[in-house]
Design a protein that fits this description.
Rossmann fold, Glucose Oxidase, domain 1, alpha/beta, single chain, 11-stranded mixed β-sheet, 20 strands, about 350 residues, about 35% strand
Length: about 350
Amino acid sequence: MQRYLILEDGTAFAGTGFGASIVSSGELVIQTGMTGYQETITDKVNTGCIIAFTVPTVGLVGVNRDNYESIDPSIRGVVVNELAHVTAHQGGKMSLADFLDQLGIPGITQIDVRALRRHIDATGPQKASIVDAADEHAFDQLRALVLPHNQVQQVSTERPYPSPGTGRNIVVVDFGLKHSLLREFAVRDCNLTIVPATTTAERILNLDPDGVVLSDGPGDPEDSQGALPMISGIQEHLPLLSIGLGYELFAMANGATTKRLAHEHHGLNFAVREVATGRIDITSHDHSFTVDPASLEHNEELLITHLNILDQTVEAYATAAFRHTGCSFSRRGHRAVTMLTTF
């Protein structure tokens, strides 16, 4: 079935539909990672977005039970160049097309996603729709669409819940956390309590944790300023690790400001330099906003620890007392251990 990907600037790409046969709209995000499409689709940081994958073929390993970042994906669509119809991995339980159809998420294939990437690099972020007809009515509806500003409220847990362990007691504030974060703590035998994004500082302190994690999450950090009093209320009492949206909110609670990236970071191979040692790590990123370095120039509370090599984006910082750490990127392996030992 022929379908179209349309952008708010009037651009249209013709392709073939798969997944759910519905019209869907959202902010277009270009994902450059060569692997991990299931993790990206199920990651709550992409809530409300249409994800375009630049890798030539998507779907070869199907969908399996080990790669979920959430059980109820909240993206608005998937765009690929070529869709694999045969699953070539022994762990695959279903095809990507069947997975999206089951979830009510539309997809479109036969799109020149690399041309789409170049277009977005030139124009900046845009709203997009997957539609049956690229007519003026569809473009008018897309331009009139107001993107939501309550993504965190949509995905944060409504009630606290435990993830039991036998080690340190850690409170995780859920702004849209990934299951892989909980798995990393489980490997380290941490006893977790996951709480909603609206939890107060008093409630967290009453739990008497050894440390607090501010999780990643979707949307503009300016839309989640309600969390700033909570962060200010706990940071002088507890060691704190912040990731993604949590990193941005912690910076705002300490006098910094955030800004949208001209070229957003969504991929697996971003080189990041540790300022103190010059060490280079290849890291995975999934963020559209970052801390404005100009707001850190005279900030006595925050110390930049890591910078992106390509665009000098602030990727991590620590407080002057090194009791708290924030990072906008996710790392696998040893770095997770290093960050967690700050507790």
